[in-house]
Hints:
The protein has 3 helices and 6 strands. It is of the alpha/beta class.
Amino acid sequence: MNELSNLKAPRGANRQTKRLGRGVGSGLGKTAGKGHKGQLARKSPDVGNYFEGGQMPIQRRLPKIGFTNIFRTNLASVNVGDLVIFEAGARVDEAALRTVGLVRGRWDGIKILGGGELDRSLTVVATKFSQSASDKIAAAGGKADVG
């Protein structure tokens, strides 16, 4: 019966500490599991994670490459041909595109591309439009708003 007065840790939860340097018979006598001499056998071996014994470290041997643009914006792309699922005269914005599943995940905006054909008048609101996409939307009698 488990009561506060007689709680016990489960079996194997409490291990005995490893007793180092207590005779050859213990298996951890003499050098106490540290091997023979050297930097790592000393009292406080101060060896960094990337220390390679004095050899030129790999992060210094390899050249610096690349560049990360902190102002980069990731845009979700949607083709004009995919907008035919909306009814004529509808307003197509980010919320509408997410509702029908054309845009998923985290994006900084949406770009409408000119792939496919559009046969209905829509008001499309997006971050960017390709030239061909805005031409096709206008040709169908719709409107491309940057917003």
